[in-house]
Write a structure and sequence with these properties.
The complex is a heterodimer. Chain A has helices spanning 6-20, 29-42, 48-57, 62-71, 83-103, 123-136, 153-161, 166-170, 175-181, 193-196, 230-243, and strands spanning 110-116, 142-150, 163-164, 182-185, 188-191, 199-203, 216-221, 244-252, 265-270, 273-278. Chain A is an alpha/beta fold. In chain A, α6 (123-136) links the parallel β1 (110-116) and β2 (142-150). Classes of the chains: A alpha/beta, B alpha/beta. The A-B interface holds A 81, 166-167, 170-171, 184-187, 254-259, 263, 266-267, 269, 274 and B 71, 75, 95-98, 126, 129, 133, 140-141, 143-144, 147-148, 150-152, 154-155, 158-159. The structure holds S-adenosylmethionine.
Chain lengths: 279, 188
Protein backbone atom coordinates (compact mmCIF):
# COMPACT_ATOMS: atom_id res chain seq x y z
CA UNK A 1 0.00 0.00 0.00
CA UNK A 2 1.26 3.46 -0.92
CA UNK A 3 2.63 5.57 1.93
CA UNK A 4 1.32 9.08 2.30
CA UNK A 5 3.78 11.98 2.48
CA UNK A 6 3.38 14.97 4.80
CA UNK A 7 2.81 17.19 1.79
CA UNK A 8 0.11 14.87 0.45
CA UNK A 9 -1.58 14.95 3.85
CA UNK A 10 -1.65 18.72 3.67
CA UNK A 11 -3.09 18.83 0.16
CA UNK A 12 -5.64 16.11 0.81
CA UNK A 13 -6.76 17.63 4.14
CA UNK A 14 -7.33 20.98 2.51
CA UNK A 15 -9.26 19.34 -0.31
CA UNK A 16 -11.44 17.34 2.10
CA UNK A 17 -12.07 20.46 4.13
CA UNK A 18 -13.14 22.35 1.01
CA UNK A 19 -15.63 19.71 -0.10
CA UNK A 20 -17.05 18.72 3.30
CA UNK A 21 -15.95 21.04 6.09
CA UNK A 22 -14.41 18.04 7.83
CA UNK A 23 -11.29 19.21 9.67
CA UNK A 24 -8.90 16.26 9.79
CA UNK A 25 -6.16 15.82 12.32
CA UNK A 26 -3.08 15.91 10.12
CA UNK A 27 -1.06 13.89 12.60
CA UNK A 28 -3.26 10.85 12.00
CA UNK A 29 -1.33 9.41 9.07
CA UNK A 30 -2.96 6.02 9.59
CA UNK A 31 -6.40 7.57 9.08
CA UNK A 32 -5.52 8.67 5.55
CA UNK A 33 -3.92 5.35 4.73
CA UNK A 34 -6.70 3.12 6.07
CA UNK A 35 -9.46 5.23 4.59
CA UNK A 36 -7.96 5.83 1.14
CA UNK A 37 -5.58 2.92 0.59
CA UNK A 38 -8.26 0.70 -0.92
CA UNK A 39 -9.68 3.52 -3.03
CA UNK A 40 -6.28 4.26 -4.53
CA UNK A 41 -5.81 0.63 -5.50
CA UNK A 42 -9.33 0.29 -6.83
CA UNK A 43 -8.87 3.36 -9.00
CA UNK A 44 -5.53 2.07 -10.27
CA UNK A 45 -3.66 5.11 -8.93
CA UNK A 46 -0.06 5.18 -7.76
CA UNK A 47 -0.27 7.52 -4.80
CA UNK A 48 -2.24 10.13 -2.88
CA UNK A 49 -1.25 13.02 -5.14
CA UNK A 50 -2.81 11.20 -8.06
CA UNK A 51 -5.94 10.61 -6.01
CA UNK A 52 -6.17 14.33 -5.41
CA UNK A 53 -5.54 15.39 -9.03
CA UNK A 54 -7.96 12.85 -10.42
CA UNK A 55 -10.69 13.85 -7.96
CA UNK A 56 -10.15 17.53 -8.72
CA UNK A 57 -10.26 17.06 -12.46
CA UNK A 58 -13.36 14.89 -12.78
CA UNK A 59 -16.31 16.98 -13.93
CA UNK A 60 -18.84 14.40 -12.74
CA UNK A 61 -17.29 14.19 -9.29
CA UNK A 62 -17.54 10.41 -9.02
CA UNK A 63 -14.25 10.18 -7.19
CA UNK A 64 -15.06 13.16 -4.98
CA UNK A 65 -18.16 11.28 -3.81
CA UNK A 66 -16.11 8.19 -3.08
CA UNK A 67 -13.63 10.26 -1.09
CA UNK A 68 -16.48 11.68 0.97
CA UNK A 69 -17.91 8.21 1.55
CA UNK A 70 -14.48 7.04 2.66
CA UNK A 71 -13.65 9.89 5.02
CA UNK A 72 -17.01 10.31 6.77
CA UNK A 73 -17.61 8.35 9.94
CA UNK A 74 -21.10 6.95 9.58
CA UNK A 75 -21.20 5.42 13.06
CA UNK A 76 -24.79 5.46 14.27
CA UNK A 77 -27.42 3.26 15.85
CA UNK A 78 -31.11 3.03 16.43
CA UNK A 79 -32.31 5.10 19.40
CA UNK A 80 -28.76 6.31 20.08
CA UNK A 81 -28.44 7.63 23.67
CA UNK A 82 -32.17 6.88 24.31
CA UNK A 83 -32.53 10.23 26.17
CA UNK A 84 -33.41 12.35 23.11
CA UNK A 85 -36.03 9.85 22.00
CA UNK A 86 -37.70 9.79 25.41
CA UNK A 87 -37.59 13.56 25.29
CA UNK A 88 -39.24 13.49 21.88
CA UNK A 89 -41.97 11.12 23.02
CA UNK A 90 -42.82 12.72 26.36
CA UNK A 91 -42.11 16.39 25.94
CA UNK A 92 -41.25 17.73 22.50
CA UNK A 93 -43.82 16.02 20.29
CA UNK A 94 -46.76 16.66 22.65
CA UNK A 95 -45.76 20.33 22.83
CA UNK A 96 -45.24 20.74 19.11
CA UNK A 97 -48.56 19.02 18.41
CA UNK A 98 -50.45 21.13 20.95
CA UNK A 99 -49.01 24.32 19.50
CA UNK A 100 -49.60 23.13 15.94
CA UNK A 101 -53.18 22.09 16.59
CA UNK A 102 -53.96 25.40 18.25
CA UNK A 103 -52.56 27.23 15.26
CA UNK A 104 -53.92 25.21 12.37
CA UNK A 105 -57.50 25.59 11.24
CA UNK A 106 -59.87 22.68 11.87
CA UNK A 107 -59.81 21.77 8.19
CA UNK A 108 -56.10 21.30 7.79
CA UNK A 109 -54.13 18.52 9.43
CA UNK A 110 -51.53 19.64 11.99
CA UNK A 111 -48.18 20.17 10.30
CA UNK A 112 -44.99 18.92 11.93
CA UNK A 113 -41.57 19.18 10.30
CA UNK A 114 -38.58 17.28 11.65
CA UNK A 115 -35.05 17.18 10.24
CA UNK A 116 -32.27 14.72 10.94
CA UNK A 117 -29.48 16.88 9.56
CA UNK A 118 -26.64 14.35 9.47
CA UNK A 119 -28.71 11.21 9.28
CA UNK A 120 -25.95 8.83 8.17
CA UNK A 121 -27.54 5.49 7.24
CA UNK A 122 -30.97 6.52 8.52
CA UNK A 123 -31.20 4.94 11.97
CA UNK A 124 -31.81 8.30 13.67
CA UNK A 125 -34.70 9.29 11.39
CA UNK A 126 -36.29 5.83 11.46
CA UNK A 127 -36.12 5.90 15.27
CA UNK A 128 -37.94 9.24 15.16
CA UNK A 129 -40.51 7.84 12.72
CA UNK A 130 -41.14 4.81 14.96
CA UNK A 131 -41.70 7.05 17.99
CA UNK A 132 -44.15 9.19 16.01
CA UNK A 133 -46.01 6.14 14.74
CA UNK A 134 -46.28 4.76 18.26
CA UNK A 135 -47.32 8.07 19.77
CA UNK A 136 -49.79 9.23 17.15
CA UNK A 137 -51.12 6.00 15.67
CA UNK A 138 -53.32 7.26 12.87
CA UNK A 139 -51.21 9.76 10.97
CA UNK A 140 -54.00 11.06 8.75
CA UNK A 141 -54.79 13.85 11.17
CA UNK A 142 -51.29 15.18 10.77
CA UNK A 143 -49.15 16.47 7.99
CA UNK A 144 -45.81 15.08 9.07
CA UNK A 145 -42.64 15.75 7.14
CA UNK A 146 -39.55 13.82 8.20
CA UNK A 147 -36.39 14.72 6.35
CA UNK A 148 -33.00 13.04 6.61
CA UNK A 149 -29.93 14.55 4.95
CA UNK A 150 -26.26 13.65 4.83
CA UNK A 151 -23.25 14.51 2.72
CA UNK A 152 -22.40 10.87 1.99
CA UNK A 153 -24.07 9.37 -1.08
CA UNK A 154 -23.45 5.85 0.18
CA UNK A 155 -25.08 6.63 3.53
CA UNK A 156 -28.09 8.25 1.87
CA UNK A 157 -28.41 5.30 -0.51
CA UNK A 158 -28.53 2.83 2.37
CA UNK A 159 -30.93 5.03 4.34
CA UNK A 160 -33.25 5.28 1.34
CA UNK A 161 -33.22 1.55 0.86
CA UNK A 162 -33.80 1.09 4.57
CA UNK A 163 -32.06 -2.26 5.04
CA UNK A 164 -29.59 -3.20 7.76
CA UNK A 165 -27.41 -6.22 8.39
CA UNK A 166 -27.63 -8.13 11.62
CA UNK A 167 -24.84 -6.21 13.30
CA UNK A 168 -26.40 -2.85 12.51
CA UNK A 169 -29.88 -3.95 13.43
CA UNK A 170 -29.07 -5.43 16.82
CA UNK A 171 -27.70 -2.12 18.00
CA UNK A 172 -30.21 -0.15 20.00
CA UNK A 173 -33.25 -1.91 18.63
CA UNK A 174 -35.36 -3.96 21.02
CA UNK A 175 -36.54 -7.31 19.71
CA UNK A 176 -40.24 -6.35 19.72
CA UNK A 177 -39.56 -3.26 17.60
CA UNK A 178 -37.44 -5.33 15.24
CA UNK A 179 -40.28 -7.79 14.67
CA UNK A 180 -42.85 -5.05 14.39
CA UNK A 181 -41.13 -2.62 12.05
CA UNK A 182 -38.73 -4.73 9.99
CA UNK A 183 -38.92 -7.75 7.71
CA UNK A 184 -36.08 -10.13 6.95
CA UNK A 185 -35.36 -9.99 3.22
CA UNK A 186 -32.34 -11.56 1.59
CA UNK A 187 -30.59 -11.94 4.90
CA UNK A 188 -31.01 -8.26 5.81
CA UNK A 189 -33.61 -6.47 7.89
CA UNK A 190 -35.67 -4.06 5.86
CA UNK A 191 -37.81 -1.30 7.35
CA UNK A 192 -41.51 -1.84 6.68
CA UNK A 193 -43.20 0.32 4.08
CA UNK A 194 -45.48 2.05 6.59
CA UNK A 195 -42.40 3.55 8.31
CA UNK A 196 -40.36 4.03 5.13
CA UNK A 197 -43.25 5.99 3.61
CA UNK A 198 -43.09 8.51 6.47
CA UNK A 199 -39.57 9.73 5.65
CA UNK A 200 -37.51 11.34 2.91
CA UNK A 201 -33.78 11.31 2.40
CA UNK A 202 -31.55 13.50 0.34
CA UNK A 203 -27.94 14.53 0.01
CA UNK A 204 -26.96 17.81 1.64
CA UNK A 205 -23.70 19.43 2.71
CA UNK A 206 -24.24 21.34 5.94
CA UNK A 207 -21.41 23.72 4.99
CA UNK A 208 -23.61 25.14 2.23
CA UNK A 209 -26.73 27.30 2.67
CA UNK A 210 -29.85 25.27 3.51
CA UNK A 211 -32.45 27.97 4.14
CA UNK A 212 -34.42 26.69 1.15
CA UNK A 213 -35.47 23.66 3.21
CA UNK A 214 -37.76 25.98 5.14
CA UNK A 215 -38.37 26.02 8.89
CA UNK A 216 -38.44 22.96 11.12
CA UNK A 217 -40.19 22.34 14.43
CA UNK A 218 -37.49 19.93 15.52
CA UNK A 219 -33.91 19.59 14.31
CA UNK A 220 -31.54 16.78 15.22
CA UNK A 221 -27.93 17.76 14.61
CA UNK A 222 -26.02 15.08 16.44
CA UNK A 223 -22.43 13.96 16.23
CA UNK A 224 -21.54 15.79 13.06
CA UNK A 225 -20.33 19.24 14.22
CA UNK A 226 -17.58 17.42 16.13
CA UNK A 227 -15.83 17.00 12.79
CA UNK A 228 -15.86 20.75 12.03
CA UNK A 229 -13.63 23.56 13.28
CA UNK A 230 -14.98 26.14 15.73
CA UNK A 231 -15.62 28.77 13.13
CA UNK A 232 -17.64 26.40 10.94
CA UNK A 233 -19.54 25.16 13.98
CA UNK A 234 -20.50 28.74 14.79
CA UNK A 235 -21.76 29.30 11.27
CA UNK A 236 -23.61 25.99 11.23
CA UNK A 237 -25.52 26.53 14.48
CA UNK A 238 -26.34 30.08 13.45
CA UNK A 239 -27.92 28.76 10.28
CA UNK A 240 -29.73 26.07 12.28
CA UNK A 241 -31.13 28.75 14.58
CA UNK A 242 -32.48 30.50 11.47
CA UNK A 243 -34.03 27.23 10.31
CA UNK A 244 -36.02 26.63 13.49
CA UNK A 245 -39.70 27.56 13.59
CA UNK A 246 -40.71 29.75 16.57
CA UNK A 247 -40.43 27.68 19.76
CA UNK A 248 -38.67 24.99 17.73
CA UNK A 249 -36.37 22.43 19.33
CA UNK A 250 -32.74 21.59 18.62
CA UNK A 251 -31.14 18.37 19.79
CA UNK A 252 -27.38 17.85 19.65
CA UNK A 253 -25.17 14.88 20.53
CA UNK A 254 -24.91 13.83 24.17
CA UNK A 255 -21.27 14.90 24.45
CA UNK A 256 -21.55 18.06 22.39
CA UNK A 257 -21.79 21.60 23.70
CA UNK A 258 -22.89 24.92 22.29
CA UNK A 259 -21.02 26.94 24.88
CA UNK A 260 -18.89 29.43 23.00
CA UNK A 261 -20.47 28.26 19.75
CA UNK A 262 -23.89 29.84 19.48
CA UNK A 263 -25.21 32.16 22.19
CA UNK A 264 -28.58 32.33 20.44
CA UNK A 265 -29.39 28.87 21.80
CA UNK A 266 -30.43 28.38 25.42
CA UNK A 267 -29.97 24.90 26.92
CA UNK A 268 -32.99 23.52 28.78
CA UNK A 269 -33.40 20.38 30.80
CA UNK A 270 -36.26 17.92 30.81
CA UNK A 271 -35.73 14.98 33.17
CA UNK A 272 -32.35 13.56 32.18
CA UNK A 273 -32.04 15.19 28.78
CA UNK A 274 -31.08 18.53 27.35
CA UNK A 275 -32.55 20.35 24.39
CA UNK A 276 -32.00 23.84 22.98
CA UNK A 277 -34.31 26.64 21.99
CA UNK A 278 -33.57 30.00 20.44
CA UNK A 279 -33.38 32.70 23.09
CA UNK B 1 -8.91 -25.55 19.17
CA UNK B 2 -12.64 -25.07 18.68
CA UNK B 3 -14.52 -23.08 21.27
CA UNK B 4 -17.95 -23.12 19.71
CA UNK B 5 -21.00 -24.81 21.08
CA UNK B 6 -22.63 -26.67 18.25
CA UNK B 7 -25.89 -28.51 17.69
CA UNK B 8 -25.98 -31.02 14.84
CA UNK B 9 -29.37 -32.12 13.52
CA UNK B 10 -29.74 -35.06 11.16
CA UNK B 11 -32.24 -37.88 10.85
CA UNK B 12 -29.56 -40.32 9.72
CA UNK B 13 -27.90 -41.95 12.75
CA UNK B 14 -24.67 -42.70 10.88
CA UNK B 15 -24.20 -39.08 9.80
CA UNK B 16 -25.06 -37.90 13.32
CA UNK B 17 -22.45 -40.09 14.92
CA UNK B 18 -19.83 -39.16 12.34
CA UNK B 19 -20.35 -35.44 12.86
CA UNK B 20 -20.24 -35.89 16.61
CA UNK B 21 -17.00 -37.88 16.51
CA UNK B 22 -15.25 -35.47 14.15
CA UNK B 23 -16.28 -32.36 16.02
CA UNK B 24 -15.34 -33.76 19.42
CA UNK B 25 -11.93 -34.57 17.99
CA UNK B 26 -11.55 -30.89 17.09
CA UNK B 27 -12.54 -29.92 20.63
CA UNK B 28 -15.90 -28.47 19.77
CA UNK B 29 -18.69 -28.82 22.28
CA UNK B 30 -21.36 -30.77 20.47
CA UNK B 31 -24.92 -31.93 20.99
CA UNK B 32 -27.02 -33.88 18.53
CA UNK B 33 -30.70 -34.11 17.68
CA UNK B 34 -32.39 -36.69 15.49
CA UNK B 35 -35.07 -34.43 14.05
CA UNK B 36 -36.31 -30.86 13.82
CA UNK B 37 -38.72 -31.15 16.73
CA UNK B 38 -36.01 -32.35 19.11
CA UNK B 39 -33.67 -29.67 17.79
CA UNK B 40 -36.13 -26.89 18.55
CA UNK B 41 -36.60 -28.25 22.08
CA UNK B 42 -32.85 -28.04 22.64
CA UNK B 43 -32.56 -24.61 21.02
CA UNK B 44 -35.23 -23.23 23.27
CA UNK B 45 -33.39 -24.45 26.35
CA UNK B 46 -29.76 -23.59 25.65
CA UNK B 47 -27.69 -21.26 23.54
CA UNK B 48 -25.71 -22.67 20.63
CA UNK B 49 -23.15 -20.70 18.64
CA UNK B 50 -23.82 -22.80 15.58
CA UNK B 51 -26.62 -25.10 14.48
CA UNK B 52 -25.65 -27.55 11.77
CA UNK B 53 -28.78 -28.99 10.25
CA UNK B 54 -29.83 -31.28 7.47
CA UNK B 55 -32.20 -29.51 5.11
CA UNK B 56 -34.56 -32.42 4.40
CA UNK B 57 -35.84 -34.23 7.45
CA UNK B 58 -39.01 -36.16 8.10
CA UNK B 59 -41.28 -35.40 11.03
CA UNK B 60 -42.84 -32.02 10.23
CA UNK B 61 -39.89 -29.73 10.97
CA UNK B 62 -37.22 -29.60 8.28
CA UNK B 63 -33.98 -27.63 8.13
CA UNK B 64 -35.79 -24.43 7.22
CA UNK B 65 -38.08 -24.92 10.22
CA UNK B 66 -35.03 -25.30 12.46
CA UNK B 67 -33.47 -22.19 10.88
CA UNK B 68 -36.60 -20.15 11.51
CA UNK B 69 -36.83 -21.31 15.11
CA UNK B 70 -33.17 -20.45 15.68
CA UNK B 71 -33.49 -16.95 14.23
CA UNK B 72 -36.60 -16.33 16.29
CA UNK B 73 -34.88 -17.43 19.50
CA UNK B 74 -31.54 -15.70 19.11
CA UNK B 75 -30.17 -14.07 16.00
CA UNK B 76 -26.62 -14.56 17.28
CA UNK B 77 -26.79 -18.25 16.57
CA UNK B 78 -25.43 -19.10 13.13
CA UNK B 79 -26.99 -21.85 11.03
CA UNK B 80 -25.17 -24.03 8.51
CA UNK B 81 -27.37 -26.19 6.31
CA UNK B 82 -26.41 -29.56 4.94
CA UNK B 83 -28.05 -30.35 1.63
CA UNK B 84 -28.21 -33.10 -0.89
CA UNK B 85 -26.99 -32.26 -4.37
CA UNK B 86 -30.54 -31.80 -5.62
CA UNK B 87 -31.55 -29.18 -3.10
CA UNK B 88 -28.95 -26.46 -3.62
CA UNK B 89 -31.64 -24.02 -4.63
CA UNK B 90 -33.48 -24.60 -1.38
CA UNK B 91 -30.21 -23.93 0.40
CA UNK B 92 -29.88 -20.60 -1.34
CA UNK B 93 -33.44 -19.77 -0.34
CA UNK B 94 -32.36 -20.60 3.21
CA UNK B 95 -29.39 -18.25 3.00
CA UNK B 96 -31.85 -15.49 2.21
CA UNK B 97 -33.67 -16.38 5.40
CA UNK B 98 -30.53 -15.84 7.42
CA UNK B 99 -28.48 -19.06 7.19
CA UNK B 100 -24.74 -18.40 7.37
CA UNK B 101 -23.68 -21.06 4.91
CA UNK B 102 -24.47 -24.44 3.38
CA UNK B 103 -22.54 -27.61 2.74
CA UNK B 104 -23.28 -30.37 0.26
CA UNK B 105 -23.47 -34.02 1.14
CA UNK B 106 -21.36 -36.00 1.63
CA UNK B 107 -19.89 -33.66 4.24
CA UNK B 108 -16.32 -32.68 3.57
CA UNK B 109 -15.08 -32.12 7.09
CA UNK B 110 -12.13 -29.96 6.15
CA UNK B 111 -14.62 -27.63 4.51
CA UNK B 112 -16.87 -27.73 7.57
CA UNK B 113 -13.97 -26.87 9.88
CA UNK B 114 -13.04 -23.93 7.66
CA UNK B 115 -16.58 -22.59 7.84
CA UNK B 116 -16.63 -23.04 11.60
CA UNK B 117 -13.30 -21.27 11.89
CA UNK B 118 -14.72 -18.38 9.87
CA UNK B 119 -17.74 -18.17 12.14
CA UNK B 120 -15.50 -18.27 15.18
CA UNK B 121 -13.44 -15.37 13.82
CA UNK B 122 -16.60 -13.42 13.12
CA UNK B 123 -17.88 -14.02 16.63
CA UNK B 124 -14.57 -12.77 18.03
CA UNK B 125 -14.67 -9.69 15.85
CA UNK B 126 -18.25 -9.01 16.84
CA UNK B 127 -17.26 -9.35 20.48
CA UNK B 128 -14.37 -6.93 20.05
CA UNK B 129 -16.63 -4.47 18.31
CA UNK B 130 -19.22 -4.95 21.04
CA UNK B 131 -16.64 -4.38 23.79
CA UNK B 132 -15.37 -1.28 22.06
CA UNK B 133 -18.87 0.03 21.66
CA UNK B 134 -19.65 -0.66 25.29
CA UNK B 135 -16.49 1.14 26.40
CA UNK B 136 -17.37 4.05 24.17
CA UNK B 137 -20.92 4.16 25.41
CA UNK B 138 -19.83 4.25 29.06
CA UNK B 139 -17.32 7.01 28.31
CA UNK B 140 -19.90 8.89 26.29
CA UNK B 141 -22.49 8.60 29.05
CA UNK B 142 -20.08 9.94 31.61
CA UNK B 143 -18.80 12.74 29.44
CA UNK B 144 -22.36 13.51 28.41
CA UNK B 145 -23.49 14.02 32.01
CA UNK B 146 -20.59 16.28 32.80
CA UNK B 147 -20.92 18.32 29.63
CA UNK B 148 -24.67 18.71 29.95
CA UNK B 149 -24.39 19.86 33.55
CA UNK B 150 -21.73 22.37 32.60
CA UNK B 151 -23.82 23.47 29.66
CA UNK B 152 -26.79 24.24 31.91
CA UNK B 153 -24.60 25.98 34.48
CA UNK B 154 -23.06 28.17 31.80
CA UNK B 155 -26.55 28.90 30.45
CA UNK B 156 -27.66 30.01 33.90
CA UNK B 157 -24.63 32.22 34.37
CA UNK B 158 -25.13 33.70 30.93
CA UNK B 159 -28.70 34.62 31.84
CA UNK B 160 -27.49 36.26 35.05
CA UNK B 161 -24.99 38.28 33.08
CA UNK B 162 -27.71 39.46 30.72
CA UNK B 163 -29.83 40.49 33.71
CA UNK B 164 -26.96 42.38 35.27
CA UNK B 165 -26.23 44.06 31.96
CA UNK B 166 -29.86 45.15 31.71
CA UNK B 167 -29.78 46.62 35.19
CA UNK B 168 -26.49 48.41 34.74
CA UNK B 169 -27.72 49.93 31.50
CA UNK B 170 -30.65 51.65 33.20
CA UNK B 171 -28.98 55.04 32.95
CA UNK B 172 -32.02 56.82 34.36
CA UNK B 173 -31.38 55.22 37.76
CA UNK B 174 -28.82 56.24 40.33
CA UNK B 175 -25.49 54.41 39.77
CA UNK B 176 -25.33 53.23 43.37
CA UNK B 177 -28.85 51.74 43.12
CA UNK B 178 -27.95 50.02 39.87
CA UNK B 179 -24.88 48.43 41.42
CA UNK B 180 -26.83 47.29 44.44
CA UNK B 181 -29.64 45.69 42.48
CA UNK B 182 -27.11 44.12 40.11
CA UNK B 183 -25.34 42.55 43.09
CA UNK B 184 -28.67 41.29 44.39
CA UNK B 185 -29.23 39.20 41.27
CA UNK B 186 -26.20 37.12 42.13
CA UNK B 187 -27.28 36.87 45.75
CA UNK B 188 -24.46 39.06 47.04
C1 LIG C 1 -21.31 9.94 13.26
S1 LIG C 1 -22.54 10.19 12.02
C2 LIG C 1 -23.90 10.77 13.00
C3 LIG C 1 -25.20 10.06 12.67
C4 LIG C 1 -26.37 10.38 13.58
N1 LIG C 1 -26.71 11.79 13.57
C5 LIG C 1 -26.08 9.92 15.00
O1 LIG C 1 -25.81 10.75 15.86
O2 LIG C 1 -26.13 8.72 15.26
C6 LIG C 1 -21.92 11.66 11.23
C7 LIG C 1 -22.50 11.89 9.83
O3 LIG C 1 -22.23 13.25 9.44
C8 LIG C 1 -22.08 13.25 8.04
N2 LIG C 1 -21.39 14.50 7.63
C9 LIG C 1 -20.09 14.82 7.76
N3 LIG C 1 -19.85 16.05 7.24
C10 LIG C 1 -21.04 16.51 6.76
C11 LIG C 1 -21.44 17.71 6.10
N4 LIG C 1 -20.57 18.68 5.80
N5 LIG C 1 -22.74 17.84 5.77
C12 LIG C 1 -23.64 16.86 6.06
N6 LIG C 1 -23.31 15.71 6.68
C13 LIG C 1 -22.02 15.52 7.02
C14 LIG C 1 -21.31 11.99 7.76
O4 LIG C 1 -21.47 11.56 6.44
C15 LIG C 1 -21.90 11.02 8.78
O5 LIG C 1 -22.89 10.20 8.20
Amino acid sequence: MAKITPNEIKILSKYIYDISGIALDQSKTYLFETRFGKLIEAEGLANYSELYSKAKSEPRKTLEKKIIDAITTNETLFFRDTGPFELLRHKILPEVIDAGTAKSSKLLPTAIKIWSSACSTGQELFSIAIIIKELLGDLKKYNIKLLGTDISDAAIAQASYGAYNKFEIERGLARDKLQKYFTLTNGNWKIRDEIRAMVNFKKLNLMLPFGALGKFDIIFCRNVAIYFNLNDRKKLFNKLADSLAPNGFLIIGSTESLTGVCPRFVPKRHLKSIFYQVR
Amino acid sequence: MGSLKILAVDDDPVTRMLIKKKLIKEDYEIEIAENGVKAIELINNTFFDVVLTDLMMPGGVDGIGVLEAVKKKNSQTEVILITGFASVENAIEAMKKGAADYLQKPINFDELFLRLQKIENLIKLAKNAGDLREAMSVTEDNAGHTIQNLELKVGELQNQLYEIEDILLKYDLDPQDRIESALKTIGA
